[in-house]
Structures are given as structure tokens and as C-alpha cells.
Amino acid sequence: MKSISLALLTATLVAFSAPAFAAKPDCDAGYKDFLSKMSVYVDKMTGYELADAVRKSLDAYNSCAAGDNFSPHGVWDQIINDMKTKSGK
Length: 89
Fold this sequence. Notes:
Blueprint: H1 2-17, H2 27-38, H3 47-65, H4 73-87
Helix pairs in contact: 2-3, 2-4, 3-4
């Protein structure tokens, strides 16, 4: 019984400490990289489409910078793919 309790305690500690070891994404470098990729499509977008993309990307950046357990790269990649599709490339 004592070994089962010890095993359960060890498993619980590992489960709760594992997220602490996850590397925090570099929000600033990721956002700069996203903006450089996005700049290719700026002239091919309407003002509304561009504003929408910037709003979404900034929300992703803010979530990343706030320390949420969130990686913005999926959002940024989707925005780039949408812009590429709308621009015809």
C-alpha cells in the first residue's frame, strides 16, 4: 500500500511539474518573422482584409506575451496561408 501511495504521489508531481519545463516561445521574434512574411501580400489585400489579419495576429502576439499556454505560430501560419490564397499565389 505504501509503494502505491508513493507511486501515485510521484506521478502527480511529474504531471504538474512537466508544463514548467516547456520552453516559452519567443513572441517578439515570431511576430517580426510573421510580419516579414506578411509584407509580401500587403499590396494585394483590401484595407479590410489587411486590418483583419493585423488584428488577429496582434491578438495572437498578446496571448503569447501574456504567458498563456498558447503558441501563436499556428495562427500566424493560417493568416499567411489565407493571404496567399486570397492573393492568388
